[in-house]
Amino acid sequence: MVEALEAKKLKEHAKLKEYLALTDEVIVKKNGRDWSRDAFDLTTRVLHVNPEFYTVWNYRRHILVHGIFPTRSVLCTPPEINEILTTDLSLTTAHLKQHPKVYWIWNHRRWCLENVPVGPTEDDPDGWRRANWNKELFVVERMLDADARNFHAWNYRRYVLASTPVQRAEQAELTYTTRKIEANFSNFSAWHQRSKVLTSLWDSGKLDIKKSKEDEYELVKNAMYTDPGDQSVWIYHRWLVEPGNDYEILRREITSIQELLDEQPDSKWCMESLVFYHRLQLRNHSSRLTDTDKQGIVQRCLQLLNDLQAVDSPRRQRYIDLSTEVQKLA
Amino acid sequence: MSEAPPLPSLARNSHIKHCKLCLSGLPSSQVEMDSSRAAVGFYCLGALDLLGAKITDADRAAWRNWLWAQQTRGKYGTGFKPSTYMTPGNDSDYSEYDTPHLIMTYTAMLSLAVLRDDFARLDRPGILHLIRACQREDGSFSALPVGGEADLRTVYCAFVISSLLDDWSGMDVDSAIAYVRRCESHEGGYGQTPFGEALGGTTYCAVACLELAPSTAASPRETRMSPSHRERTIRWLLHNQTASGGFCGRTNKAADACYCFWCGAALSILGAADQVDSAALARFLADCQFKFGGIAKAPSERSDPYHTYLSLAALAIYPPPAADETWKLPSLNVLWNATTETARWARKHIPASN
């Protein structure tokens, strides 16, 4: 047992020594403005061990710009630059798989992409860029397949879609989110992305908001009934309903959720949402309601909040506080 | 209602040992922490501060000196580096490669306050210059004056540094507040960047920022969060307390000890602390204690200084009812994330004296 510990300690020591030697060497080279191929390979080795060593990423880019790109007496040709950047993108894909959340790797990829030269020909000036940016979207999709909730990947996806030289139709992204959501209703990040894409399509007039929202209510209802315990769906539903100025839709959704609650009497999300939507009725539509209506709604809320104290006991105090709030609306 | 089993003790000595050990060195598996040493140091020292650990004079002096060795000057102003890993010699001036780091500046300043430094060596105008150099056109702050991550975490650090200095002249407050607001998520809470999903950590950062910055003509404090967003945020945060008693950091994720602080502290700032189930919270964190010391992100995981510190900070805000003496922790300044005593010391010694 002691021998095993000793062996482990020695191995640890050797690893640390190697790492420190590597980093010392890199520091010396960078201070000496060494832009050679050797220096470049050295940065590769250091970054393999520690991709968070951000100054080495900076040094690597300086080597590319000052050393490797201008390797001949004239500036490196565009095909060679494209080749080198494409290779760096491949290399960092491997890093990304090991370290999917390290900012500096994503950052380096951005730099590579943004520096891909125009070409290959005058007739096809976007060929190289299209190839690299499309591949990037593919890489992001693989990352999201591996971890659908990696928000670094989702942020990066938004960056790629916004920056790619040949723009994709926004509808295509809507379809992508549909695919991810249908694969897993709990994928909140996909629902979130969907809300962003729809907002953009509505704002630009590319999709009619009323018709589109109806489609969304259908989608959400399906998800709600499939798994009423999934928080993502209820957040998305609330986003669709708010600010709750359309009385007919508000009433319709309340009825729909009530029906679900009748089937699933312990569903805290049903109860919680009903309270919220009833409160919207009282706040936004009191002129349509008789005093009797209002009293009825208040009583309904108090009943639900009482049930919630039992069904969702960690938040007991919240429901007690809300009951006080609701009573003020009576 | 049946009696819940009594809360196990908080293994204070074990956690103190863990933090002291981490202060002296980390294993090779943690090599990625090399570029964040000043932050790791802060988590260790913060934990020792909360646990009332005895620090020897020799250690205190050594750590203070190490921290001051990271203060560095140059064309973008003055600040603290993460460590000496990019600096071979003893230059106190930096190059483009090893500029000071905004997050490390924040952690270094708080660490020095924990160590009761007199801050005579602090280059206050230089730090204001750094903040200015790091602020971007969209109002956010990059971690380094030459680039790097720019999101709500770095914004929070810039705000706390300014608050510690009691001097907001290093930034355009209105522009920064506008950036914070652009990070609002429809779920309630705030994402790391605009368009992002709400995250526990950045929600804390946002809520703290909006509270810290002085009112300006263009951004009076009362207008920084609409009532509906405040309500949404409180709701989102409260629903992050899972059945385990711990908080998760995002919709539909698992509980993680650090979010007990990020979400719990945000709720405290928003005045909703009484709606948190503090007994369940403590039970979760008790289970996160690692048998060899320190507190882990979840039960049966390995501990680390980050989760250890944040768990203790959460417990300082939410002392468990009906618990033994081991659970008694000093009060916390929630906005700066330091004990009230340390905050008092910082308030006395960090701002420039008139």
TrEMBL record, chain A:
<dbReference type="GO" id="GO:0004663">
    <property type="term" value="F:Rab geranylgeranyltransferase activity"/>
</dbReference>
<comment type="function">
    <text>Catalyzes the transfer of a geranyl-geranyl moiety from geranyl-geranyl pyrophosphate to cysteines occuring in specific C-terminal amino acid sequences.</text>
</comment>
<dbReference type="Pfam" id="PF01239">
    <property type="entry name" value="PPTA"/>
</dbReference>
<keyword id="KW-0637">Prenyltransferase</keyword>
<protein>
    <recommendedName>
        <fullName>Geranylgeranyl transferase type-2 subunit alpha</fullName>
        <ecNumber>2.5.1.60</ecNumber>
    </recommendedName>
</protein>
<dbReference type="InterPro" id="IPR002088">
    <property type="entry name" value="Prenyl_trans_a"/>
</dbReference>
<keyword id="KW-0808">Transferase</keyword>
<keyword id="KW-0677">Repeat</keyword>
<dbReference type="GO" id="GO:0005968">
    <property type="term" value="C:Rab-protein geranylgeranyltransferase complex"/>
</dbReference>
<dbReference type="GO" id="GO:0097354">
    <property type="term" value="P:prenylation"/>
</dbReference>
<comment type="similarity">
    <text>Belongs to the protein prenyltransferase subunit alpha family.</text>
</comment>
Automatic annotation (TrEMBL), chain B:
<keyword id="KW-0677">Repeat</keyword>
<keyword id="KW-0479">Metal-binding</keyword>
<dbReference type="GO" id="GO:0004662">
    <property type="term" value="F:CAAX-protein geranylgeranyltransferase activity"/>
</dbReference>
<dbReference type="GO" id="GO:0046872">
    <property type="term" value="F:metal ion binding"/>
</dbReference>
<protein>
    <recommendedName>
        <fullName>Prenyltransferase alpha-alpha toroid domain-containing protein</fullName>
    </recommendedName>
</protein>
<comment type="similarity">
    <text>Belongs to the protein prenyltransferase subunit beta family.</text>
</comment>
<feature type="domain" description="Prenyltransferase alpha-alpha toroid">
    <location>
        <begin position="10"/>
        <end position="321"/>
    </location>
</feature>
<keyword id="KW-0637">Prenyltransferase</keyword>
<keyword id="KW-0808">Transferase</keyword>
<keyword id="KW-0862">Zinc</keyword>
<dbReference type="Pfam" id="PF00432">
    <property type="entry name" value="Prenyltrans"/>
</dbReference>
<dbReference type="InterPro" id="IPR045089">
    <property type="entry name" value="PGGT1B-like"/>
</dbReference>
<dbReference type="GO" id="GO:0005953">
    <property type="term" value="C:CAAX-protein geranylgeranyltransferase complex"/>
</dbReference>
<dbReference type="InterPro" id="IPR001330">
    <property type="entry name" value="Prenyltrans"/>
</dbReference>
<dbReference type="InterPro" id="IPR008930">
    <property type="entry name" value="Terpenoid_cyclase/PrenylTrfase"/>
</dbReference>
